[in-house]
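A reminder from the course coordinator: this example appears on the midterm review sheet, so study it carefully.

Given structure:
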């Protein structure tokens, strides 16, 4: 009798534990925000976005498959689905897709099932270095907008006293504002000293059409800051 009671207790406990686990299922993506300007020495990345219909779903990651022959990138997105109770509100979600270094070419970005999310163009690199420029080490970037004027602030920490922010190249692309913060190293008579040297820079872009944009800011060592914003 004791063995039977223990067995029933373990069974009930196992069922309760299983019921607590969410269900893994396919998720739908709505939009792709794909920067222009990658070449074959870059860490290629873009952002995808979707909307959950209530509060009982959470992201479970997006897998990708690159098909070099058909020049397609197929994305399969997943979500965890919980039992509830669920609030009936829309929940936007987004994810950075890191493809790594890719061969040059024009690729169609597709969701599983064939829905096209955008076009990715990778040009052939002209240099053997990791990047065409020495990018500044950006750790934060944020955007404010008002009446078509966009103000962007970027900041980070240089690790050498001779490094400086030489120029910032912003470019308004379809659904993307791409920023190249280019650094320079100035040799000084007193020499260069390793350390922590914070910096911050603010600039404006005029006549930006209203809509939803990806702010894509390049950074040192193939990194980038990627954030979605609604511009009025």
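Designed residues:
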């Amino acid at each position: 009798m004791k063995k039977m009671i223990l067995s029933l207790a373990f069974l009930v406990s196992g069922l309760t534990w299983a019921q607590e686990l969410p269900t893994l299922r396919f998720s739908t993506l709505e939009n792709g925000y794909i920067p222009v300007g990658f070449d074959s020495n870059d860490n290629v990345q873009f952002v995808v976005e979707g909307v959950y219909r209530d509060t009982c779903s959470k992201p479970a990651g997006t897998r990708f498959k690159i098909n070099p022959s058909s020049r397609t990138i197929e994305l399969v997105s997943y979500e965890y689905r919980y039992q509830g109770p669920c609030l009936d509100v829309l929940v936007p979600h987004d994810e950075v897709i890191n493809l790594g270094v890719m061969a040059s070419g024009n690729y169609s970005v597709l969701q599983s099932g064939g829905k096209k999310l955008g076009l990715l163009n990778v040009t052939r690199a002209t240099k053997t270095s990791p990047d065409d420029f020495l990018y500044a080490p950006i750790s934060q970037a944020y955007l404010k907008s008002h009446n078509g004027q966009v103000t962007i602030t970027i900041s980070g920490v240089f690790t050498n006293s001779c490094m400086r922010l030489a120029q910032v190249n912003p470019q308004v692309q379809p659904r993307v504002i791409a920023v190249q913060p280019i650094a320079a190293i100035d040799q000084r008579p007193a020499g260069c000293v390793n350390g922590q040297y914070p910096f911050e820079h603010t600039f404006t872009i005029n006549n930006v059409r209203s809509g939803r944009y990806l702010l894509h800011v390049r950074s040192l060592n193939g990194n980038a800051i990627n954030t979605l914003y609604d511009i009025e």
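The helical segments are 2-20. Residues 171 and 178 are 5 Å apart (CA to CA).
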